[in-house]
Batch of 4 targets.
Target 1
Amino acid sequence: MSRFALSILVPLALCAAALPPARSAERIVEYVDAHWFDGERFVHGSRRVVDGRFVGKDGAEAPSERVDLRGGFVVPPFGEAHNHNLQNAWGLERNRAMYLREGVFYAAMLCGDATSNAGVRAGLRPAGDVRVALTACISSADGHPLGMALASLREEDPDADATAVHDHAYVVVESEADVAAKWPLVRAARPDLVKLTLVHSEDPARREDPRYHGFNGLRPELVAPLVARAHADGLRVAAHTESAADFAVAVAAGVDIVAHLPGYAFARGKGPDDYRLSDEAIAEAARRGVTVVPTASVASFIARDPDAISDVLALQRENLRRLKEAGVPLAMGSDRFTATSLVEYEHLAGTGLFAPEELLRMLSMTTPQLIFPDDGVGCLEPGCRADFLVLDRDPLADAAAVRGVRARVMGGLHLDPDDAAME
Ligand SMILES: [Zn+2]
């Protein structure tokens, strides 16, 4: 007897064993008794999946299988819009199970080069794995991430110098002529995104100060030519920004994503006025549809001094409130080693600025759609990929429910996070 004649109720926990691995276009799976997130609220009902996509019910044949979700709360899998955990083959092996276990299926890694990106691509499984957007990273000769890269290289080789980093770990651009001359290095990384680093670009004196060597960024006048070059290749641009001036430079130059909300820490000699976004820059970000990835939780992670952190958090809250009021889209990224965007979700929940449905929408819809805008992710409607999580409890009633992932489905197939194998 064909399995299509069967109509069975299968608890999802048993799926790995109970569901056949068929990918036939005729396999119609109906997921019943669940609450489905529509971006505002949960609606009880059932949904159908054919060939890895949600489908409507009009005119459809009877389902070949039914899967009982037992009153669970279904959300699109989560996105992580700023991290480095999966940006080389070693990190992918080490961290993929954490991402899948936490339900973070889509992640943007915001630095990379030809070698590291090729390693990640080779390590990713063709199905049932975390989906990663990879980046080519551009900064100045004395810019971030040189300082971090050198510190790590010198653990192995005390004599390592910048030549091991320049045009390897990131592409160095110091002049407009470099934009064209270095572009083959960007293309060699086969990036999904380009990241530009700005660090107090309003303060060129930093570049003369040896304490900041390796922690600076691009000259501000190079940002617009770099954005134009990337856009000509169809690549979106994310900017690492640290000051309010950097934010304004990035937005005016046409970047697509601001990858840090300025002011997650105050640099030496700087105060809130250096990090308070201008009304003009916020309005321009709203007008251009720039998405801001605040990485706000970085503030608590790197804070050393309890007084400084209270000023940082107060300013962060003010900037976030003004961005939200202006309608600037916000997405979630943690930029935290050994963590995912769930820590950012928790930090943003703690600001009290966002309704539960806004936070859940950011985590499960805005962020996945920012990372993979053309792939039908971040939604549970007909035509969307059948990627979803089943939560035990209602995350609109208790934010902690996002950590209670009962089951994971990717492309219509049950996923086991610990071996990342399908069914
Ligand atoms: Zn980062």
Target 2
Amino acid sequence: MRTGSFQLMKSMNRSIILNLIREKGPISRAEIAKITKLTPPTVSNIVKELLRSEFVIETSQGTSKGGRKPTLLDINSNHFFIIGIDVGHVYVKFVTSNLAGDVLEQVRLKLDSHPNKQTMINVLKRGVHKLLEQSQLHVDRCLGIGVGMHGIVDNENGISLFTPAFNLRDIPVASVLEDEFQLMVKVENDVRAMTLGEAWFGNGDKQENFVGVNVGYGIGAGIMYEGQLFHGEANIAGEIGHMTIDLNGPKCDCGNYGCLQAIAAGPAIAERAVKELKFGASSLLTDMCGGDLDKVTGSMVHKAAVQGDEFSTRILHDTGRYLGIGLTNLIHTVNPTRIIIGGGVAQAGEFILSGVQEMIASKGLTQQAKETPVLSARLKENSTVMGAVVLILQEFFVRK
Ligand SMILES: [Zn+2]
């Protein structure tokens, strides 16, 4: 592992100074000493090491009332980089990011429709090799690889325990990538990664207790509790997709009836629209699918709504209402300061959110519960991959 040169970050004072520079930079040595209450010589020595490690750079001169102007220190954001991977149902996205969370380069590979363990591992390796080639960055400057993966993930050991979409178990993601690239590798569930991405670079802002909800092929939640992701006893905390919303609802993949995701996830939106169209509802969708109702998708319903189709607008609003029932249950369980919705269905924005907010406002127990803000993910489709980047970033820095 290429961790030797980063060993210096382990010291408490170094870590405090490094994080202060990230939070307040550009900042002078004198100001660091003042804020940290460390002696100027101590600050000066640690800064010297940080400059040598190239985590920190000296930037333009600061302002001073008379006398010599102090040189300011800032994070050397572009010297090191991090690789983030988002393993979706159809595509795997690979990005390089600098330390400020800017995406530098991106690669997307398509998965086989029924990947096995080995083909899955091969795609991960191939994508990272391709990304490194394409970005022309030297692997020595890579701090590590973060992976966001759907399903149940053992984040401590970096193992994908179960992926419902591919029915694969126990993929040793971290150890395979560590062996191939000699880098630190961290793996997390995709929705928790999305929540982490929003916490650092999106709509999580300074919130310590909030929930990220992914609404795509399935529905899941990432719970941020006191600034940390909450995993539960066996990594299944936040699996809200299978909470029962309607006992008489449609059958879910899990075998039960009326689960939240059987009603409000992407495929369910299309199914509900098709069912009503078959009963003779009139909609732009009939033309858009060329008369073949099997071709109707959730995103097609959104496109029709954007074009002013009343039927599709109502379908999305109803979807929001069902989602709102699930989210009200979540509000009453963990009482977050806000809820951030990401994933494919979240692209429908206001069409969905209006229904969500309507339901929360009508069912919330207290005025505060009724007014729980619901926002779309600011990083949109990059939330998960940026959260994967944060898995590595947080080994060196603390959240601002
Ligand atoms: Zn279910």
Target 3
Amino acid sequence: MERLANRPVASMPWPSLSALFARSTRSLPYPFEAPQTTLWTSARIALWEAIQVLDLRPGQRVALPAFCCGSELEPFLKAGLELSFFAVGDDLSPEPNSFREAIENASAAMATHYFGLPADLSAARDMAWQRKIPLIEDCAHALYATEGATQIGLSGDAAIFSFWKTVPLPDGGALHLRAGAVRARPKSPPPELIRHATRHLLSRSMRSHSVGAVRALEDMRQRLRRKKTSTASGTAEPENWHLIKFPDELIRAGMASSSQRIFRGTDHAFVRESRRRHFRELEAAFAGIRGFTPMSSLGEGACPLYFPVLVDDAAGLRKALAAEAVGVKHIWPYFHSSVPWSRFPRERHWKEKAIGFPVHQSLSDGDVARLIDVVKRWSRS
Ligand SMILES: Cc1ncc(COP(=O)(O)O)c(C=O)c1O
């Protein structure tokens, strides 16, 4: 009953209908229209272009964080690179000794600004600079996160972005280069991909609609569709692999013009402020819950993707939240086979226990209150 009475709390933002069909020509925030930036369909495709510009060749080595989603490894593997891994500290920055070891025979390194919370890369930058290898900043989670007053990532040799994770867009990512230039010209992304992603966003909007009848209609449509696809296909792919793999057909695919229009119409300051406000509200509400350890507090430059918390009984909480139609992000369920997990028990633990609570801009005060209520009831049970 609860499920029907309350609108679901979605883990990702959804667009209003007017945003989906807006034709804004406003400029994009810096640096996304600067000459050093190129727009791509996703961060993975941007990363592929970075690999080409940085002239990384098959057989060379690249140092990467062991705490990873998995999808960011695939462009390097596709390019024939060897991977070495480094540990990440409790402050979510590269652990210096481990980083030093990982870059020993490497031709490049990448470090991640997790969950839109700027990482301290000063030690990693110095070490990469001393070894004269480029440092790529993975800013896939960190759109609108800042260093001083500017977008984070711009001091790295290259930075990749994934707009669609923060803003509800059919696709979109970027590559920023401190020096050098992309030679490839972006091509249009496959129209079916953009149609599918747009339908998915529309569905998310309808499932979160304030009018219950709209939600019920979309729920029914989804159930029918699932029934049809589950009988039509049995897949041999591992779970979540579709989110991880690097699709060959997307190499060189630029950001769709429809996504660019929606992005232009976005109120960037509102997105950042809403995310920061919701983070603070959840942080205050969850303080003192037994078995909850926030992974970070909110620094000045942060534009959080989630409120990341290590939860002792993460699986139990995810189940309880799902039963009440509250969506959270499991960070991250996929253990990529390239990472020597036995050497990285902390990162493994994080992948098992971390939950990303939604803080996005589409949440109303009522949604946040319901999320808090469900978590608190569960914690008392
Ligand atoms: C840390 C990190 N980097 C890069 C990516 C790839 O982003 P995209 O899906 O836009 O290719 C992801 C995807 O989830 C990620 O979590």
Target 4
Amino acid sequence: MKKLISYALVFVLCASVVTLGAAYANEQQQLNEIHSKIDKSRSQLQEGKKKEKQLGDQIKKLESQINETEREIADIKRDINKTEQEIAIVKSNLEAAEQEMEEQNENLKKRLRAMYKNGDIGLVQILLGSENITDFMSNMDMVQKIYDHDVEVLKFMEEQCKKIELQKKELEALQAKLQAERQKEMDKQATLQANRGQVASLKSEVAKSNAQLEAQIDALNAEANRLIEEIRRLQGDKAYAGGKFAWPGENTYVTSEFGMRFHPILKVNKLHTGIDIRAPLGSKVMAANDGTVIKAGWNNSYGNVVMIDHGGQIVTLYAHNSKLLVKTGDVVTRGQTIAYAGSTGNSTGPHIHFEVRVNGQYQNPRNWL
Ligand SMILES: [Zn+2]
């Protein structure tokens, strides 16, 4: 009976450890997903900002086009004004010419009527009534002058008619020009309005998209914080297993120490967040201490990566593995083989990148080995 009770107790304890491990792994999994979503949203936002800059350039171009169009419209308006003045001048010239023509016509008609009434004899009688040759010559001269005047009047009227015809044509041309200029102005105004509309819609589109992304990132961060709190709560009563760590590789040769270094791939000075331990491809990668696997999967920079929670907010990480032997939620023991070494992710050759994080802060793993 006593044995049975102790079995039952062991069972209950195991069950609760498994449950805790599973719940914890679930939260951690969710947190990882949220973090990768945040990364994705951030890179989208970066893209959005880039697009905003590109659009800014496009908008600048459109705005200079708008300025250009406005200048063109001002020019056209000046042209229209000038044409309208020209039209006014031509019109008044035309009116004056027509007025003069009317008067001359009236005079000529009067004279012709008078000549007709006199039976056109008047001029001959004047000549015949001359008293002597001097008188005759003088009368002849007068008759000639009257005749010349009539001819001049007729000539003038002919020219005036031509002039009026020309001015009418000029007026028509000017009016057609005016209409063309007005049409051009209307077209330009339409272009202007279209460009302005385009600028406004591009601006609001980008602003909206970026605002959405920022809101998304805020929401994801809030969710991540909530999960971190939840993990802390679940971890709360779990203390560190204790002791120094076991070396995670089959040897202890470190090819790159913890600290600032020139990154060989990224070509920038960067914190090396762990130590690189020499490890041939396929050699054993072992848990540094007892704990629970909180991540076993792919990461673009770490490659195939395992993270183990050892309690007391202490987490170890093993990166660039060729093959993983554990899964999230597994309970592992110190020295257990959890993966085989490799060069996956951001790596130049097979090695174990080994990290120690305490309360999420990178520590020099040397201090724990
Ligand atoms: Zn490394």
